[in-house]
């Protein structure tokens, strides 16, 4: 991504004024995709500060299975009104596949069976929605890092963009994309991922507010910059005024 030097100095100056110095760090690592607004500046501050502070304790807390919430709310889209999706649902997603494309050496098309046969991680984590509720769920899925390794990131790769059947999109920088708890979840609480929670595959990106964990994923793209992807803000939630960086 390209940054103008004066913006970079402006942002790192603000971070230093906040008590955290970015000396010795390549500042572009800390910049969210859009920082042309006040939201963007606060994104950069909290993101830069958290990246430094969390370096030594990077995992989200995991809970005992006995703490799994009985009624995990289903929020936003709970059944996409999309003909192709509804057809896939009827066949148990037998012919569904997930493209992984963009700045990769080997573009992939992963069927659900292939995804389910990949190495999986199961984690019991707390989900916090920006609307003020929290619930604990158990998620099973393929580490995104594994899929990105199979596809092979090109050197220009900076962000991973997720599209979904209901028109949402989200994106992660490589720090979150390669984080061990970032998974393409196909299971919840020991069963296949239920429709209302994003079947067949949703993102789980722990340590971020709930909206970052996009449901009903239908495409993964690797990009250098968010420019030209919708309004360039990095996520639909960001277009509605929420922080692109949703770290908690
Ligand atoms: N595609 C898509 N992803 C989405 C949403 C949505 O409406 N559509 N809602 C988001 C919000 S705000 C939250 S809190 C979580 C809710 O996930 P859940 O329905 O499994 O509780 O999904 C997020 N991902
Ligand atoms: Mo949410």
TrEMBL record:
Transmembrane segments: none annotated. PROSITE patterns: PROKAR_LIPOPROTEIN. Pfam families: Oxidored_molyb. Residues 94-225 form the Oxidoreductase molybdopterin-binding domain. This is Molybdopterin-dependent oxidoreductase. It comes from Sphingomonas colocasiae.
């Amino acid at each position: 991504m390209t940054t103008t030097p004066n913006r970079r100095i402006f942002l790192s100056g603000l971070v230093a004024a906040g008590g955290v110095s970015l000396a010795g760090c390549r500042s572009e690592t800390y910049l969210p995709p859009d920082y042309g607004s006040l939201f963007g500046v606060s994104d950069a501050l909290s993101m830069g500060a958290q990246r430094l502070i969390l370096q030594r304790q990077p995992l989200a807390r995991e809970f005992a299975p006995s703490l799994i919430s009985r009624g995990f709310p289903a929020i936003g889209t709970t059944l996409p009104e999309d003909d192709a999706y509804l057809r896939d649902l009827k066949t148990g997603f037998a012919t569904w596949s997930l493209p992984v494309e963009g700045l990769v050496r080997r573009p992939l098309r992963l069927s659900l069976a292939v995804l389910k046969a990949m190495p999986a991680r199961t984690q019991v984590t707390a989900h916090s929605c920006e609307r003020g509720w929290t619930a604990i769920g158990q998620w099973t899925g393929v580490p995104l890092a594994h899929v990105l390794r199979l596809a092979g990131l090109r050197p220009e790769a900076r962000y991973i963009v997720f599209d979904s059947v209901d028109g949402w999109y989200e994106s992660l920088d490589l720090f979150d994309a390669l984080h061990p708890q970032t998974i393409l979840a196909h299971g919840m609480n020991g069963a296949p991922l239920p429709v209302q929670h994003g079947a067949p595959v949703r993102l789980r990106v722990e340590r971020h507010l709930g909206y970052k964990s996009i449901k009903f994923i239908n495409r993964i793209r690797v990009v250098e910059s968010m420019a030209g992807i919708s309004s360039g803000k990095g996520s639909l939630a960001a277009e509605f005024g929420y922080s692109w960086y949703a770290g908690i």
